[in-house]
């Protein structure tokens, strides 16, 4: 059975991640980013590997902060569910 056959067989499958792990993902990325940046600084940015560590560490930190900010923003202002009238209802 090929991969395309399996995807047509189960179109709505999603992987469930337990909440305790889901909430910790940004912290994990932040710590990994700090370790990579720290390693790059410790190495002195003398070679390509140190620059790669610095780049990927910085990207990991930026990603972690942006995900955490988006989650906090969403929790502070949850989207309103059907609180607005549809245009057809307001005309009648």
Mean pLDDT: 82
SS elements, strand count: 0
Helicity, as a percent range: 55-70%
Helix-strand pattern: HHHHH
Largest sheet: number of strands, sense, barrel closure:
none
In short:
The protein is mainly α and 92 residues long. The chain has five helices and no strands.
Topology record:
Elements (H helix, E strand, L loop, with lengths): L2 H7 L9 H4 L2 H19 L4 H29 L10 H5 L1
Helix pairs in contact: 3-4
How is this structure best described in words?
The chain is mainly α. The chain has a domain of 62 residues. The chain is 70% helix and 0% strand. The protein is elongated, with a radius of gyration of 22 Å. The termini are far apart. The model has no long low-confidence stretch (mean pLDDT 82).
């Amino acid at each position: 059975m090929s991969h395309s056959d399996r995807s047509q067989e189960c179109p709505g499958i999603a992987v469930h991640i337990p909440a305790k792990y889901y909430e910790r993902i940004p912290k994990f990325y932040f710590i990994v980013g700090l370790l990579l940046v720290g390693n790059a600084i410790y190495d002195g940015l003398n070679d390509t590997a140190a620059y790669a560590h610095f780049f990927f560490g910085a990207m990991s930190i930026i990603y972690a902060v942006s995900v955490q900010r988006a989650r906090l923003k969403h929790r502070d202002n949850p989207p309103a569910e059907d609180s607005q009238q549809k245009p057809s209802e307001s005309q009648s």
